[in-house]
Amino acid sequence: MTKILPKRALVSVSDKRNLDGLAPILTKLNIEIVSTGGTAEYLTKMGIKIIPIQDVTGNPEAFGGRMKSISFQVASALLYRRDHSQDLKEAKELHIQEIDLVICNLYPFKEVAAKDNISRDELIENIDIGGPNMIRAAAKNMKWVTVITDPSDYEALGQTLMTGGTDEDFRCQMALKAFSLTAQYDLAIATKLAREFGAEFPDAFSHETKPLRYGENPHQKARLFVINNQAETKSLANAPILQGKEISFNNYLDADQAYKTVSELNHFFPELQHCVIVKHGIPCGVASSPDQLKSLQRSWYCDSTSAFGGIISFSHQVDGASAEWLAQNFIEVVIAPSYTPEALHAFSKKKNIRVVEVPLKKAGSHEWTVRSINGGILWQEEDEKLSLEFKNMTAKKFDTKKNEVVKFGWAVTKYLKSNCLLLADYRDGAFAILASGVGQPNRLECLTLLAGPRMKAKNIEIGEAVLFSDAFFPFRDSIEEANKWGIKFVVQPGGSIKDQEVVDACNEFGMAMTITGERHFRH
Which domain holds residue 511? Predict the structure, then answer.
């Protein structure tokens, strides 16, 4: 891998930290240092020889420092391709001397913006222009140019230079860090100025943005920003709405759960028709069978009360029969990869039904999810893992069909709110959920107060149902309670120090237990 030892560096920093450790290394390696303004003064006082930026640009610094590095000469020195014959020819003709190391950080806009009673003029003066230009130019030419934007990376840079120069992996990593810095910097400016100028939201999050009617409640303002947070270009956020009124903030949250759950099921059972109904962020009805209408009806009757006014997602093209059936009930949104003309005609009779068309989410789309907290945001990878390597832990075993129920139920459990317990089975040619207890701080009460009583009210034989838990059982009390309800099949991640005690309880009651080895919390 090619190592490059720079001949000339451009150093222009607002944050002078660690510079006194790096600059002598550059000098020792005979790397010329071009510098600007306050950085040039700082280095000169250290005894470091520098080349003033005006010697490169041919122009003096001007307008109170607003013009220093912005020039054809500096940009060319950073951008021309070192392995491109025409670029080399033009650089020679134009007397461009390469700059192959940029050490730059930006005016402290965020720090200034955080001060109380900051004037607009002072705010504007702390918007860096030349710095981002240099950083982006150097980062774009990462094949040949190294860009360092973080003083904490000076030590690594020094060590790398002392061992012969930077390799392409190092330059690429630093370029990524540089582009991230400029993106964050511009977003900070847009966010602060949006507040300064009275805008409701900054439009810098994406090219696509639209206001929503309101947020979770009518007194809250809300907006949808389409962001590039997955490998796929088509998403729920930019999906076409074929009919119906505007989708609301809460509708989008429910739609996301329904869409992801139905996509997950389709990954494991592509031969079946899947239907998922979500209400208040929780799948309340899920069923899978070879027949779409049957899947729809079974999912609806999982919890017909909650299904009323719910969000429904299908794994396949919606046909006329399913659409006609839905049109007789109250729903908010229907989501599917496509619709037959008959289905669209049936939905047209209910003008308020939002009909959304979007391809299923692919497995391994590498989605990132974003949630806000006071003063910050939390980023994480979406939970796209779902192991189907189950380990039976008890004397009683799951038969082949029960193992298929395990796959179905485990995929659904992943999208239920923690703590959760789910009951599911296979009857009359369809997989379906039967009852659940979700979003509770007490796992035992998920069963004693919610899933168990809901199951009993349906008067269904509970002995053939499978009980799923999104995380391990910390004690045997949940197993004792499950036995009281007549449950004979249990699926849980395992991982508790009392796993053996829980397994022993299952064996005592003649129950089968499978361990998945992974949990799926969803807060």
Answer: 385-515
